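seq/struct pair 1
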Amino acid sequence: MKYRQLGKYGVRLSAIGIGSWLTYGMGIDDKMAQKCIQTALEQGVIFFDTADIYNKGEAELSLGRIFFDELNIRREDVVIASKCFWPMSANPNDQGLSRKHIVESVNKSLKRLQTDYIDLYQCHRYDPYTPMEEICRAYNDLIQQGKLIYWGVSEWPAENIDEAISVCEKLSLHKPVSNQPQYNIIRSQIETNGVMESCEKAGMGEVVWSPLAQGLLSGKYSGGVIPKDSRAAHDKMGSFMRDSVADKTLLAKVDKFKAYAENLGVSASQLALAWCLRKTNITSAITSASRPEQVIENCAAADIEFTPEFDKKILEIFA
């Protein structure tokens, strides 16, 4: 495994991270989740991402049980990231990025994860109804209290990232250190909408989600056929990718991409992950896995030496 610095900040993350959206605490039982996490640790993965909204806290609970009840790992050996923003109940204050919701969300995440601190806590979306100063001060206070080490954002527009940095600099507060956007060969908008530029300017690292487009870039859905043991076949896990699996034009491109990867001696998943990691400001590509062999396959992508020729060919395929 290779490790990368989170932007300009000192903490290092594994180039391949493990996420828990739609998997742990939902589509994957704890027994299989434990096998996947144990395999990830053996492969050198130290970065694990979750969020309070993932199955309404069940993903955090699952990770906490596996880390500290089953595997009995040392807390300092992993970097745990979580997030808040989305409604967790019908309570009108149990959502957004108000100081009240951020503080209460962090306290609940700490309990579910069975830890005294969270390494990286991110704003799951931008909240237009809460003043930026309130958001920044809330995170700064939680860092000062030792409950968080770093804070960051996810899916924020460039102008809001710039505003957060400006407010923190003006008030001498701890700045956001990370951004968690969707980023893959099919959806690479952060390269052109100013987000990547704003993050680089601020020294923030990118910890990207869906680098395999929820498994589409693995090539397993060739011809629109959905394997019974795949994410797309699952009622809950596949709910966000039905349109993509039905897009024959896109699937034809993925078939060409898979053939190109195999000619290079790697899998389509590995090449797709290596494509994300070709950018030096991408600190970690957050993957999900329902089987240990997927973890091993994905982790091997960190060792691929990505060349400009690869990039050119992939752009031709997906033009």
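seq/struct pair 2
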Amino acid sequence: MGTGRGVAWVARKCLAAFGWRAAGSHPQEAKYVLIAAPHTSNWDFPLMLLCGMALGVWPAWVGKHTLFRPPFGWLMRTLGGIPVDRTASHHMVDQLAGEFAVRERLALAMPPEGTRSLAPHWKSGFYHVATKAGVPIALGYLDYVRKEGGIGAPILPSGNLHADMDRIRAFYAGKLGCHPELQGPIRLPAEDEG
């Protein structure tokens, strides 16, 4: 979903008030999975939203279905939330790929670390959703050292997981989260399997 110029201007001003800036540009594609990394702090979500809005993107995001109950469910949806039932995780890829099928525009932000705590690897959902939906993966980032957030050039999954992940690792090299000690390796479990 895109944002207007006024929203982008307000977002840039808010970022500037905190000493941050948005970099990169709005992807040309109407639909894409937006990696949100690194993810080491509660501040990542509001900063990601502000950086996205400053670049003309209002990203959708995935939340536990219980967040969408009254009285605040309407607000979660207004902020771009997509409810998912995590107890049925084996259907989550299908559910999220289905969202791409029914929408004209969708920038779906997914933090591949899956947690703010140190994890041994990234979760592969972002890659599988993009592959199943046939959409590119845009490389969204927050770099707390430079106080910069943005979006790098999208990558269309090639089917060669190792080559795609090498490109993703190269992009994120040197980009540090609020708590760099909580950033795990940029690696998917399937890379160790073959």
